[in-house]
Write a structure and sequence with these properties.
Two copies of one chain form a homodimer.
Chain A lengths: L4 E2 L9 H9 L19 H18 L5 E6 L2 H13 L5 E6 L2 H10 L4 E7 L23 E4 L1 E2 L4 E2 L12 E4 L16 E5 L10 E6 H4 L13 H6 L9 H16 L3 H20 L5 E2 L11 E6 L5 H10 L2 E2 L10 E4 L6 H19 L2
Parallel strand pairs in A: 1-13, 3-4, 3-5, 5-8, 8-9
Antiparallel strand pairs in A: 2-10, 6-7, 9-10, 11-12, 12-14
Helix pairs in contact in A: 1-7, 2-7, 3-4, 8-10
Chain lengths: ~375, ~375
């Protein structure tokens, strides 16, 4: 089959060049006579690749030396619990910004382990914006403030990061816009991200943690596998890490370097998103984007057809044009085009042109 | 490079045929125009593959309908904690058989969450056998009995499974001999196995759990991501599962079917292990296997050179013959040849012949 344009929210599109490299060397990695899947995580060959991968990410994101990069399993979902377990003692208050489905779930998970203060919620406005900071009700003393830079389902993205107050660490789920735009890592206590959107494949979670937070809490009731210190102390090799997922991340980081780094990627992401939102806004109401302009995600473009009866036809016709996985998440309905780093501009243009043609055909009837 | 014979303990050798299939379809899975790494775990294409993979394992292992098959992350190491958290209430006693490095670690982890009774230990005899059951001191009332069918480091394997007593569930770490020989699943409460030895690649753990155990304990303090019920209730899709690792497992299960199933694989494993142990036993003391014959692992053949000064030369010369990763685990030293399902008889013969030639050369000096 010709290569499809894959708008899946995750697992998501990978750079075609990365897939070709993985394919080419799948049976023989660096002339070892073995696949990268088959070699020991503690051997020299994988060790060198792993170090290079870590270093590439550090350079790409300009991660300061007082931050550790950890490679974990379990997805962002496990981080929802680990953040609370590692940073809050029982009875501690933790602040959560509720800007969509995933921040709500992160907050619900934290309730099991700490006292949660919902700083602000846009639930009643259906998560179509992020309320301005002056409306937030922060705790006097929180163990951390948690937020979700980009809501994959609702298509809401923080245009700028929250302000740090009283040295409360910012803890951030960056799963769906990690390495998609430059950020200042110094502003964060912890950044975590599932890999299956911008980094690589499902089964790997990257955690960037400020070193002083590793030592802050020692709770003997937390399983060692859920303690950040376990991974920091062993360079993420307490047990066998997901070596192939790390390998894919490594290839993706090299690809980003070749694209000119994260600033260059961010510029393209901006162009891609603008292109699609323009098609929606210029459609005379055939399509609409619910999220208010300043908060529209550059990663997940959420939109609806005014005539919802056309939804199925829209999806089927798109699929016939190799434009795949455009159906919105069930909790929201409608459509969603996920246009992560690896989605080429050509894919976005193909989708935009298809949407225009589809609107033209069905407006006239 | 020509394909190496890879004796790594894990991540370990995969069937060459499986690697070729993965390579061939890496960029286009089932004519979707996308890689299997890129498609949604909730879509039809992955869903069908996932169901087939589960069914194949159920048929291969003859898993009864009152057992659930779960696909998790975190390795056997996370299971060390999950077993105790899910099956024991605080204060409950749990029984552990200590037959080597990994059962000791499983036991140490459980101590954090339950009262551990070490039923028997062979530590003082350096884990060279499994003490007979009549010497075991089981608790009057244990939440479960945990054992490790095969010790990857010490090369000790249970020739027959422990007896069930007082309906205490048998819980078993089968990471390094899973699907390597027929077993009666009915004898077990829980079987768990990291995938990176016989199943596929690192980053996937398979858990087979008897349904009545899912409901037995509800501890509100356990993170949902660590509750077996979470995965059972969602068919392992509570969050994004490690799709590519599941795909590789699926290919491996198909390959085992083509080999004639687990009984046929077991027969070959027996032949492979016997071949190597014979080379060791017939070496006039040049090589020795520390483990007593009835308990010698069919998966991890542990041996030493009488003259340890030759260790480095042995490893270097082996490597020059494409016989890789033969160095023993640091806690034990010496040599180890892991000969999982995917290691062909030709690889074992090549190793055996190399060992004989090496012994001949260095005995005569």
């Amino acid at each position: 089959m010709p290569r499809a344009y894959n708008f899946s929210a995750g697992p998501a599109v990978l750079p075609e060049e990365v897939l070709r490299i993985a394919q080419q060397e799948l049976c023989d990695f660096q002339q070892t006579g073995s696949s990268v899947m088959e070699i020991s995580h503690r051997g020299d060959v994988f060790g060198a690749f792993f170090n290079e991968t870590q270093n590439n990410l550090r350079v790409l994101m300009n991660i300061p030396n007082n931050y550790r990069i950890l490679f974990l399993q379990g997805g962002a979902r496990l981080q929802f619990a680990m953040v609370a377990l590692n940073l809050a003692k029982p009875g501690d208050t933790v602040d959560y910004v509720n800007s969509g489905h995933w921040s709500q779930l992160a907050m619900d998970t934290a309730k099991q382990h700490a006292v949660v203060n919902e700083v602000v919620s846009n639930r009643l406005e259906k998560y179509t914006a992020i309320p301005e900071e002056k409306k937030w009700l922060r705790s006097a003393k929180a163990a951390y403030l948690h937020f979700t830079t980009n809501e994959t389902i609702h298509g809401v993205q923080f245009p700028v990061m929250p302000t740090i107050k009283n040295d409360v660490p910012l803890v951030c789920d960056m799963s769906s816009d990690f390495i998609s735009r430059p950020i200042d890592v110094n502003q964060f206590g912890i950044i975590y991200a599932g890999a299956q959107k911008n980094v690589g494949i499902a089964g790997l979670t990257i955690v960037i943690v400020r070193e002083d937070l590793l030592a802050s809490i020692k709770r003997s009731d937390i399983p060692k596998m859920l303690q950040y210190a376990t991974y920091a102390d062993t360079d993420s090799m307490y047990n066998t890490p997901p070596t192939f997922a790390i390998y894919m991340a490594g290839l993706v980081f090299c690809w980003i370097k070749k694209q000119g780094g994260i600033a260059a990627i961010a510029k393209r992401n901006e162009e891609k998103a603008n292109w699609l939102y323009r098609v929606i806004d210029d459609s005379d109401g055939f399509y609409s984007a619910p999220v208010k302009a300043p908060f529209r995600s550059r990663m997940n473009v959420v939109f609806r057809l005014a005539n919802e009866k056309l939804n199925e036809l829209f999806l089927e016709t798109a699929q016939a044009h190799h434009l795949m996985y455009l159906k919105g998440h069930p909790v929201l309905g409608g459509m969603r085009a996920s246009i992560y780093n690896a989605m080429p501009m050509d894919g976005v243009k193909a989708l935009g042109e298809f949407m225009q043609a589809f609107a033209k055909t069905h407006l006239s009837h």
